[in-house]
Amino acid sequence: MGTLGDLIVQVVVIGCVYAMIAVAFDLVFASSRVVNFAQGDFVAGAGLIAAILAVTHGVPFGIAALAAGVLIALVGMVTVSALILPVLPGITQRSVSDLNEMRWVLTTIGVSVTLEAIGGMLTPQGAIGVKPLINGGVNVAGIHVPLYDIAIVVVAVAMIAGLHMLLRHTIVGQMLRAVAADRYGSAAVGIPVRRVIVATFVGAAALSALAGVLIVPFTQGSASGGFALGLAGFAAATVGGLGDMRGALAGGMVVAAAELMGARFVNSQMESVFPLLVMMLILVFRPQGIFQSGAVERV
Amino acid sequence: MNGSRAAWWGLAVIGVAVLLSPLVFPNPYQIRLGSLLLAYALLAVALDLVVGRTGQISLGHAAFFAIGAYGEGMLQAEYHVAPWAALALAVVMSAVCGVVVAGLAQRVRGPYLAMLTIGVGIAVQNAIYVAQPFTQGAMGLAGIGGLPLPFAAPGPVTTYYVGAVALLLALAGGIALSSTRIGTAMAVLRQRETLARAAGIDVRRVKIAAFTASAALAAAAGAFYGTTLGFISPESFSMKLSIFALVSCVLGGLGTPFGPLLGTALLYGFQQIAARTAQGDVLMFGVLLIVVPLLLSRGLAGVFVSLSARIVAALGLQAPRAQATLAAAARPGDKATAVLWLPRRDGERFHLREISHAFGALRALSGVSLEVAPGEVVGIVGPNGAGKTTLLNIASGYYRPSSGMVLLGVTDLTRVPMHERARMGVVPTFQHPQLMDASTVLANVEAGLLADPRAASAKVGRLRLDDVAADLGLTPLLGMLAGDLPYGPRKIVEVARALVSEPAVLLLDEPTSGIAPADVEMVANAIRIARERGVAVVLADHRVEFVTQVCDRVVVLVGGAQLAAGRPAEVTANPAVVEAYLGRPSQGNYA
Question: Is residue A296 part of a domain?
Answer without folding.
Answer: no
